[in-house]
Amino acid sequence: MQYLLMIYAAESAGPKAGTAEHDKMMQRYTELGQELDAKGLMKGGNALDSVATATTVRVRNGKAQTLDGPFAETKEQLGGFFLLDCKDLDEAIQYAGKIPSAQFGSIEIRPVVSCAS
Amino acid sequence: MASLEQTRAAVEHIVREEWGQVLAALMGYVRDFDLAEDMLQDACVAALHHWPLDGTPLKPGAWLLQTARRKAIDRFRRAANFESKRAEFEMMIELEQQVQQEEEDTMDESIPDERLRLIFTCCHPALEEHARVALTLRTLGGLTTPEIARAFLVSETTLAQRLVRAKRKIKAANIPYVVPAPHLWPERLDSVFSVIYLIFNEGYAVTSGQKLSRADLCHEAIRLGQILCRLAPQESEAAGLLALMLLHNSRQESRIDNAGNLVTLECQNRHLWNREQIDAGVRLLRGALALGRLGPFQIQAAISAVHANAKRYDATDWNEITLLYGKLYELQPTPVIQLNQVVALSFAQGADVGLVALAELDEQGTLAQYQPYHAARADLFRRAGRMKDSAAAYQRALELTDNKAEQCFLEQRLLEVSK
What we know:
The structure holds 2 protein chains of 2 kinds.
Chain A: H1 20-38, E1 55-60, E2 63-68, H2 89-96, E3 107-109
Chain B: H1 4-30, H2 33-54, H3 60-78, H4 86-106, H5 115-122, H6 129-139, H7 145-151, H8 156-172, H9 185-204, H10 211-231, H11 236-249, H12 275-290, H13 296-309, H14 318-331, H15 335-349, H16 351-361, H17 371-383, H18 387-399, H19 404-418
Helix pairs in contact in B: 1-2, 1-3, 1-5, 2-3, 3-4, 6-8, 6-9, 7-8, 9-10, 9-11, 10-11, 11-12, 11-13, 12-13, 13-14, 14-15, 15-16, 15-17, 16-17, 17-18, 18-19
């Protein structure tokens, strides 16, 4: 059985990047990742860029609408996810519009933070 | 000999005219708004220094582009630590190759027009609407941040933040710097149209004391519309939008009196209408209609053209206008359009017919909070000779507006029917 664990937190909460506390937290993330890897549980995971980079796509009456900002309707719940490797946002928007639930729900697109090696 | 200020103003004018096209070309190389703007800014400083001495180059755009690239190379070279600036270093090598390749010929030739890419990127629907407007004016129009802030009555800080956020989103979300594929054009063009029309309307809206800086926005929107028409000549709605803006703008001189009050179409001095703009608008509209793809902007332009062609107010072809509003309603079923159709109908067939149609329109009572509904109703009552009903409706309309010019106008009318 696969499970998606979603991390919710206020962007202003938690240790600030560049501080020793933040380094410690990142270290704990790394350790957790290694532990899950070792046990064969880890299927994928990454940090998302801030909500300021979010785009929402909906399809109503067959017409795709693209909007700036995160998805903000509280009546609807997260029901699934796709992790895509697209060449740019337009490609991601194109496939977001093809997700059947976009006809009645909303698809939020968030860039995954690319880890510079 | 021209004074220093005059020379400076002349250089600045040329720079502004070339800004969008040069920036669009630079974006093609560096894909980074801040960097491209910095490069162009450097080239502009150089232009202010060189042009007054050496004369304005034959192709100022090509000169600015060439100089901007050279300045960028110098800048990258000076960056002390190449290792930490690998991306810049790579960009520099690429730029140097391009400069060497094109050194010989570019100076004499026009630079390729890549503004369509820039327009589509700045008006990307994944950007917030205000940010789209600001970014378009900044990058395509070459307006400065303080100029845009002044025109939109927001603080420079707010506007600067909008721009920063938009540029960051373009980068982080990887909004591509491309002309979208044809199947994406309808949605993406709508966004471009709405940005340009928003800029126009912001300039056209009456706000006392802001008359001058706001008229500039109309001019800027028309300029953007002209660029878009040149780049996408097959898009009938692009021509329709430009025609509509020109036709509206032709009445700029007559629609506000010396006291800053709104003057209705009926009372406007038609001799003040700008014939040149009307002719240009009508010509554009004819061309657009010939393409055979009708759209809301073309219909609105057609309505405006009917007014423009009437020698006197009472010579207006209201039947034609009623018909056109009907067509517009088919494409955009909104109460505003229905209301306008009823008003046109009342002029074609009488105030009583208009009142009946208006009553049918508001059967559900959905227009109760809608100021134009009450203003239109008040006017119909007035024309039907029912002054008491008219006064009550004007009173209600007054309660629903904050706009100073509108308040003035409604108060004036209320006074007249209350006599």
